[in-house]
Amino acid sequence: MSKLIYLDNSATAFPKPEEVYQFMDSFYRKHGVNPGRSGFDAAIETEEIVHGTRALVAGLFNADDPNRLTFSYNASDSLNMVLQGMAEKGDHVITTFLEHNSVLRPLYHLDQAGITETTHVMFDAKGYIDPDDIKKAIKPNTKMVVVNHCSNVIGTIQPLEEIGKVCRQAGVYFVVDSSQSAGAVEIDMKTMGIDVLCFTGHKCLMGPTGIGGSYIMEDIPVRGTRFGGTGVRSAVKTHLVEFPYRMECGTLNIVGVAGLNAGVNWVKKNGINELHKKEMDLWEKLRDGLRNIEGVTMYCVDSRENHNPVLSFNINGFDAGDVGTMLDVDYSIASRTGLQCAPKVHEGIGTFDIHGTVRFSIGPFNTEEDIASAIEAVREIAAIRN
User: Fold this and answer.
1) Which residues pair with 175 in a beta bridge?
2) For residue 181, which of 165, 194, 200, 196 has the smallest C-alpha distance?
3) Residues 115-153: pLDDT tens digits?
4) Which of 258, 234, 238, 254 is nearest to 246 (CA)?
5) 209: Cβ–Cβ under 8 A, 6 or more apart, which residues?
């Protein structure tokens, strides 16, 4: 079997840095105990890693209070808690056609329950949201604006600072899904005016699956929606409202936290901007190579500016799923096909009714040889119908 060429990093980054594997293994062997529950040395040392990781990730977003950095399973988990914890009957919510189902579905369920009304703002032909369109959609009862920082389908990075200014001027809360951007590009919650940032650990932060979280600024009205053990003040009948306990209950995924710690440290050591430049250089080679293949259509690839290394395409005469199968079986190339859990993006680029696209997403361990092989594979598949 040929070596796998992995171009599905938007789903999860793979492989992880060796340092992540090693730290998770050594940490769990020595510190696989419950943090914050007991006073023996191993438990105290485990809690130090947990708190240290809160501070590390909060610092990455230029956020000040480590205790307001709370952990969850992933961004979808945090977005569910945040959206359900903020929404009140009669609220209006603004979001976009760029969202993943981690935003679309919670908001749909809130709308169906008669709690909220949601407006979806369309992106332009190049894949970007116009902040003025957000402004125009704001109503007197608008509670929050929810925006995907970077599309997992077309890779466009949205102008958060400008959108944040619109939200501040209107007095509405700004919630950001950073699943595809945290660790890939710089995020400054203060400069960008972000009130709530939800993230996942297993993509650009180079951690394992099963760990993510959110940072919630002070005075943002997010109710806790889960109740259980916290390890402190056990006699209190209600779940604690102070952070980090408000958004967490039960034993944390401590080996996931350890992996996230190692992943973030690896990203910081290698440099977010340096990693991004290398990946975008490969993206540009991929884009330029596919441009020269007859019958290939790409979406929102005009410029590498404000873009992540994600490229969606179709080959005329082929279903995207069939192309993905051929890439896998015949060329050992891993891609993602279909609607990629973001159906409204496909409505916007006109691929919903043709079963979506083929997506290549580049990571820090991809090489020029990987890109050359992917281009040649697409060329050979396209030639079948020519």
Assistant:
1) 146, 196
2) 200
3) 999 999 999 999 999 999 999 999 999 999 999 999 999
4) 238
5) 12, 74, 201, 202, 256
Q: Please, are residues 245 and 272 in contact by the beta-carbon 8 Å criterion? A: no
Q: What is the mean pLDDT of the segment spanning 273-300?
A: 98
What's the length of the chain?
A: 386
Quick check: 196 pLDDT over 90? Answer: yes
User: What's the half-sphere exposure (Cβ side, CA atoms, 13 Å) at 100?
Assistant: 24
Residue 237: per-residue pLDDT = 83
How far is the C-alpha of 65 from the C-alpha of 228, rounded, in Å?
23
Predicted TM-score (pTM) of this structure: 0.96
Give the DSSP letter string of 298-335: ESS-S-STTB-SEEEEEETTS-HHHHHHHHHHHH-EE-
Task: Find where tokens 């060796």 sit.
Answer: 18
Distances (CA, A) of 172 to 137, 166, 303: 12, 9, 32
- Give the phi and the psi of residue 103 in degrees, each rounded to 5: -105, -45
Q: Hey, what domains does the chain have and what are their CATH numbers?
A: 5-16+271-383 (3.90.1150.10), 18-269 (3.40.640.10)
Q: Give the pLDDT score at 100.
A: 98
